[in-house]
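Suppose a colleague, Dr. K., hands you the sequence of a protein chain of 532 amino acids and asks what its three-dimensional shape might be. Before reaching for any lab equipment, you can write down a predicted structure in token form. Begin with the sequence itself:
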Amino acid sequence: HYEAPSRACACRCNIALCERKSSPSTSLWRSQRMTASWTATPRVWGLGAGAGAVFFQRVRNRRLGSSRCPGWMRCGDGSSDASSSTWSPQSPRIQLLALLLLISIASQASRALIFYMVDFDPGATQEDAVNAALKFDQAEYGYIATLGFSLPFTLASLLAGLLADSSDRLQTIGYAGIASSACTAGMAGAASYSILFGQRVLMGVSQAALNPAALSLIADRFGDAPATASSIYGLGIYIGGGLASLGTIVDEEFGWRSCAVIFGSASLLASLLVFWAPTSKSDAVATLASSQTSGQPQTGRSPSRTGDTADVPDVPDVPDAIRKASSMATEAVAQQSVRWLLLASTFRFCAGFAILVWLPPVMRIRFPDNVEDFATYNACIKAFAGSASSLAGGFAADALRRGPLGDRAGIAFCIASSLAAAPLWYGTLIDSLSFEACMLFLLAQYLVAESWLGSAVASLLGAVPPNRRGTVQGIFAALTAVGNIFPAALGLCPPEELASALQVSVAGAYLLSAVCFAFAFTASEERTSDSL
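The predicted structure, expressed as tokens, is then:
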């Protein structure tokens, strides 16, 4: 492509030729991407195309009285929609991001709900505590809350990452959300621990398909601000976790079975909205480029109504499928910086899941008179402090990218976040502190610690080829299984030692993640030097 910085646009535009097509009711812009380049075509054609595009751009800007780059110039994220390079609420990509966030909130709330329906106090009733009704102890709770979800989630995530690179991602997200909602509502009918365990397994399988599809969509649509967009999507973890924390109040008022039905029904409504997602042409372009890069044949499949037009290849033999999956995964983690980022993220998962699973029971035991207060404070801290931290991390990483660190700024930000989180978490569970002081430490810890996710995901996806983003995101999601082994192991601790074990181990996991992020930063610097 002829690339030239224009006066009206801060980025370098991939020039597109547009023709206006009139109809009785509307006018449509159809973009046809130029295949000319400096090396493949005569120099005069490149000059003529560039001059013509800049001329029409300036004429259009003068008519509109605006200095913004027009939407048909395909700036930044490579989208062909008129509003796809903006952050306007009318932009299809912003509407899609809002929908993906809503589905993320619903899935995270469903996933964490069980953490707030248990009570290991001897006086717990069968109406208010699922463990009392189904007769399982603290160790069994550790298994169902962690490995019962994470092991099937891990196995399914490896396949879901490949699926995200070769199928209709919006349809995948919608059907996965419906299945997860059914599992959540179905907990109300569980008559035994084994049935509840099976429902958690199915929930893990269904939710595994969400993140690879959603985050690869975001990476395609938000090339101009990947960390910010990933951080916005990551708000689902905190808002969903906050809503799940309010499940304690719903549980106390209506019982745990009614609580499961309420959360499952709300999740179902959110999942159904994906089938009316805003359409865009950009996925067709991205999918075509991906299939050409990966060498997959085009099957001529008609574009889907949702705008995600990935072709579905023929189903290969099992050995061929295994070899192909292995090749894709190997290509996705070929860079040393990617491997260090995945290891660092694993330690962050260990810390996060340990807090998610064991902080509510620990607080119930330590402050039995403040159970509802903890539910309220915890919900607010997760929803507001966690969300603010995630957004601030994304904004900061994207802003720092324009500085001397470039794409490595996100990794540097993760190092600082992990180092600062360790002492704040340790202070949260100091024995001599009051309930209010513990909540203040928890608030500070969330404000610092939860800024890592958007930066880490953006750095990870930026280090792999575009046609392997779904695959590496599937590997990233699969590593949550390793993170879930950590809280499962904590469940084996004696009840009187659980708080101190949680305090020390989580702080240690934060420090280890900082070390791994530092190695990723060094490896990324070496890769950048080699490429230069």
